Amino acid sequence: MKLTIGTRGSALALWQAGHVASIIERNNPLVQVELMTIRTQGDKIIDAPLAQIGGKGLFTKEIEDALSDRRVDLAVHSMKDLPTALPKGLRLAAVMKREDPRDVFISGDGRPLEDLPPGARIGTSSLRRKAFLLNRYPGLEVISIRGNVDTRLRKIETENLAGIMLAAAGISRMGFAERITSFMEPEAMIPAIGQGALAIETRESDPVVKEITAGLNHPETARCVKIERAFLQRMGGGCQVPMAAHCVSHGDGIKLVAAVVHPDGDPMIRDSYAGPDDDVSVGIRLADTLLAQGAAAILKAVLAEDWEPGPTIDII
Fold first, then answer.
1. Does residue 76 sit in the same domain as residue 212?
2. Is residue 307 part of a domain?
3. Element housing 290 (H / E)
4. CA 82 to each of CA 108, 157, 208: distance values in angstroms, whole numbers, following the listed order
5. What pLDDT tens digit does each residue of the chain (316 aa) get?
6. Catalytic residue from among 43, 69, 73, 81
7. Residue 176 maps to which CATH number?
C-alpha cells in the first residue's frame, strides 16, 4: 500500500513529514510512504510580515485542497499553523507528542537578552514574540524577518541584528540546538497555541488511513492542544493580534496560562487556570476572563470596533 503525505517544501516541513513517514512505515511494514511538496500562500508571499498578509490557513489551505481532492492521503502541519475550523470532510486525525514548546533567543555575539542595550535590533517572524519582547524589554527594536530557519540565522549578520527569536522545536529538529543562547520559559513568553506539536490531518471518509494514523496520537498533548485551540477560537484568533495560550498536565488536571498583548507591547492582559477540569471549556472560560479584563478592548482597537468573540462550539 502506498500513502502520500502533503507537506510544505521548507527544510523544516520536509523533516517533519519525513519523520511521520518513517514512523508510519516502521509501524506498518506493508505501507510505503512518499511526500508531495505543496507551495502555500504563506510560502509565496515572503516580502511582507505574516500579520500584514492576514487570512487563515496561510500555510495549510493548499495542502488541505490537495487532501480534499485526493491528491494526497494525509497532511502533516505544524500545529500552530492549523486553523481551528477545518474544511468540510477533513479531520484532525492525530496530534503527536509535543516537543519543547518554548521560544529561544539566538544571540549574534553571545549576550543574553537582558544584557542588550537600548536600541538593539531583534529579528522575528512572529507578532506574538515581538509583543512579548516589547512588553518585557521596551527599549529593543524588534523587526520582522521571514525565511527558513537557516535563512533567519544568516540574517543575524546580513541585517545587523543583535539576535533572533525562534521556536525551540524547529531549531532542534533542524540540528541548530547548539546555536541557542537562552530559552524563554513559558511563564515569561507564553508559546503560540500548539507550538511544538505536529498535526496529522486526514479525510473523514478514509477508514484505512484513520487506522494507520491513530497510533500517532498522543492523548496528553491532544487534550492540551484542544484546550489551547478552544481559547484561540473563542478569542476570534488570528495572526493580526498577539495572543498566546499554553496548557500542561498538572496533578490530576491541567494548568493553562494565556495572554493577549497589544502589538506595541502594552497593555498585556494575562491570567491562568490550574485545577481538575481538563476539557475545552477551560480554554473558553479563560478566554472570557481575559475579554472581561480588557482583552476585548485590545482586539477592538487592533482589529475593528465591530469585533465579536468567536463561537464556543465545534472546537477541533
1. yes
2. no
3. helix 281-290
4. 32, 32, 23
5. 999 999 999 999 999 999 999 999 999 999 999 999 999 988 887 767 666 666 678 899 999 999 999 999 999 999 999 999 899 999 999 999 999 999 999 999 999 999 999 999 999 989 999 999 999 999 999 999 988 888 999 999 999 999 999 999 999 999 999 999 999 999 899 999 999 999 999 999 999 999 999 999 999 999 999 999 999 999 986 667 799 999 999 888 999 999 999 999 999 999 999 999 878 999 999 999 999 999 999 998 888 777 888 877 655 4
6. 81
7. 3.40.190.10
Q: Does 316 fall in a domain? A: no
- Please give the model's pTM, rounded to 2 decimal places: 0.93
Return d(Cα 281, Cα 276) in angstroms, integer: 12
Active site residue 252: no
234 and 209 fall within a common domain: no
Q: Is residue 274 part of a domain?
A: yes
Contact 171, 179 (CB under 8 A): yes
User: Does residue 75 sit in the same domain as residue 212?
Assistant: yes
- Secondary structure, 3-state, 137-201: CCCCEEEECCCCHHHHHHHHHHCCCCEEEEEHHHHHHCCCHHHCCEEECCCCCCCCCCCCCEEEE
Same domain, 83 and 11: yes
